[in-house]
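Dock manganese (II) ion; give full complex structure.
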Amino acid sequence: MEVFRERRRRLLDLIDGVAIFHAPAASLRNCDVEHPFRQSSDLYYLTGFEEPESVLVVTSVHPEHRAVMFVRPRDQEREPWEGPRPTPDAVKEQLGLDAAFGLDDLGAKLGDYLAGAGRLHYELGLDRAFDERVIAAVRRLRGRRHRSSRPWPCCIVHPEATLHELRLVKGEAEIASLRRAAAIAAAAHLAAMRHAAPGRHEYEVEAALREVFLRRGAARVAFEPIVASGPNATLLHYTGNRRRIEAGDLVLVDAGGELDFYASDVTRTFPASGRFSGPQRRIYEVVLEAELAAIAVVRPGATVDQVHDSALGTMVRGLVRLGLLQGDPAELIAQESHKRYCPHRTSHWLGMDVHDAGSYFEGGQSRALVPSMALTVEPGIYVSPADDLAPAEYRGIGVRIEDDVLVTASGHENLTQAIPKGVAEIEQACRR
Ligand SMILES: [Mn+2]
């Protein structure tokens, strides 16, 4: 509980006014089956509370309260099915709040909490129905501006400017969770390398990944696993996972588990039959060189752009060397000719969300890294099977290599270092 209280205290230092965070409702999958519920990262970060539809109000303007929650009321009909819901009193006690109410009180009380706040910290657009309630409360306060001198929330600020700044720099407990999530990703990727073989299906490799994640205590995968064999590896977000793996295929596996609400996100690309072909190995070595060069840049003070530029420069020089691009590497990058083969950026923040909260720019400049940020490094080269301009031997090859990297005081720590990625290591791990 103390860690969540401390986070709310730190948020209060950043807000002047009121912040509202709310959990989604359980959502319908089909007929009367629901999607598994997963708490909102912002709400969990501040409370550790996992109930759907909960609303947290953090306020610096209320005379007595700083943190208040509204929770689903008890429901006699549902409880035999879902178990008892915690009462507001229990929630107040458990979470160390100043007050807690049933959600049915939200309409009446929201205006009271917003009154006097010149700023409302709230993420518009996540949930239109909830937006309506918040906007209605704001408009009612504005309607009183003739008779009340108290500020009303004329300014609505996205949490990127406040809470997400806190989430971007990880605390000790968060780093420990990221490490554990990285360790289960390592075990899962090794299992995938052992399972992938000509004649097996992509979904059988997916099953091997999921088995490790679940068995090692991940509540769920951090995102739908990608198991892309052969030409499927050139589709960036392929998640069909139905194809039969053929001899001579590369298999690209992009998968991570979510442990204690923290994600891992790792990609490895390996030969199904245990040995790279010549063209596969040449592309692979370019991507590997780029990934190592980019990781080497990660240290306090380096920018996200510098990490990306290091990877991209290495890949474009490699693509020229292999005859996939012709010309001066710097000019090719300036003209964006690389996008044919290297269409995506190199990094994203990693944390509770696999593409974690936090802005990538600061004062119009690429953001400088500071210790305890976590990011992925994941360059890739993808040659479409239909690319008539590419030498035939490279068509249909897709390679991405991705690790999870923590910025440390002296440089970086690769949290997923243990997963094979050198050519010889990979070939060995794939041979059963
Ligand atoms: Mn990623």
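Observed: The first strand starts at residue 18 and ends at 22.
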